[in-house]
Amino acid sequence: MAQTPSPAAADNASLPFWKRSHYLDRMTLGDLWRAYFQHYTIVAYLALTVACLVVFALYPTSLVRAGITVLTAALVYPLVWHMLHQYILHGQWPYKFKMLAGTWKRIHYDHHQDPNHLEVLFGALHTTVPTIFIATASVGWFIGGPGGHIGGAAIGFATGLLTTCYYEFMHCIQHLAFKPKWKWVQHMKQRHNEHHYVDEDGNFGITNYWWDHILGTYYEKKDRPGRSSTVFNLGYTEEVAKTYPWVKELSGGIASDHPRRRAIANAQKLAAKAAAPTEAQIMAHAAEAVGMDTEA
Fold first, then answer.
1. Do residues 207 and 170 touch, judged by C-beta distance below 8 A?
2. Per-residue pLDDT in tens (0 to 9) along the chain, 296 residues
3. For the residues of the chain, what is the DSSP string, one character each?
4. What φ, ψ does residue 23 adopt, rounded to 5°?
């Protein structure tokens, strides 16, 4: 017998694609491909890449310098990402400033609160694009040399944008409910899941863990028995919120347990609420009982 979708699910399905909620643990690889190429950030990265290639064609540097720029930008990118991830996204300072609290909440806290929620997995353009530009266009500007600064910067920025597209897709894969066939993808997925569900203080890489090995932040689950108590809130606890309340106010509270348990608990509350009689029903029943007593 076919199961009737809940009113909430029906309402969600009727919304435009990116007005709905998407959860990677309920999606197929095909669903991900469709969602990925429709997301505004990916569309923006690809459009900017095309613009960079046009600029490079108009103001070229030599092919040798362009090749060196691409290789250097691709090598610099993982280190920049690692440092940002460890010291800013997991930093214990952004939420201490009211003007930064909302940004920190959006770009990483929300992702750790519910790692499979696709809408908060992609980075926000106002934070990602300037960061990519500074990290990679500067490399290209320097390598491009006299007369090739602009073309070098453009090809460096294009490399950073395409690398970001790759990072974002692989990040989605790591939260998707399927087992990859390739061992190297399985390895990435396992390390990243440990970052989200075992201990947030390590495995900061997304597509590789070279810098985690070099900087001493690499681990496997067997190395850290037990689960970190702050893996879902990044150390932003109720105690911390007493002094720095802004993230809690924006979030409507702080969650520290597994998202699936939270979802089950919320569903049980909603079911109990739906089953409970309303005040009008209680009053009607009371009036009916009074009438029956009077008649008796």
1. yes
2. 444 555 555 556 666 666 677 899 899 999 999 999 999 999 999 999 999 999 999 999 999 999 999 999 999 999 999 999 999 999 999 999 999 999 999 999 999 999 999 989 998 899 999 999 999 999 999 999 888 999 999 999 999 999 999 999 999 999 998 888 999 999 999 999 999 999 999 999 988 899 999 999 999 999 998 889 999 999 999 999 999 999 999 988 887 666 665 555 555 555 566 665 666 665 655 454 444 443 43
3. -PPPPPHHHHHHHHS-GGGS--BGGG--HHHHHHHHHHSHHHHHHHHHHHHHHHHHHHS---HHHHHHHHHHHHHHHHHHHHHHIIIIIT-SSGGGSHHHHHHHIIIIIHHHHSTTBGGGTSPPHHHHHHHHIIIIIHHHHHHH-TT-HHHHHHHHHHHHHHHHHHHHHHHHHHHSSS--SSHHHHHHHHHHHHHHHT-SSS---SS--HHHHHHT----GGGS-S--TTTTTTT--HHHHHH--HHHHHHTS---S-HHHHHHHHHHHHHHHHHSPPHHHHHHHHHHHHHHHHH-
4. -125, 120
Q: 205: how many CB neighbours lie within 10 A of its CB?
A: 23
**Residue 203, both tokens:** 């495995």
Alpha-carbon gap, residue 8 to 235, rounded angstroms: 32
Q: How far apart are CA 77 and CA 140, in angstroms?
A: 13
Distance CA 259, CA 263 (A): 6
pTM of the model: 0.81
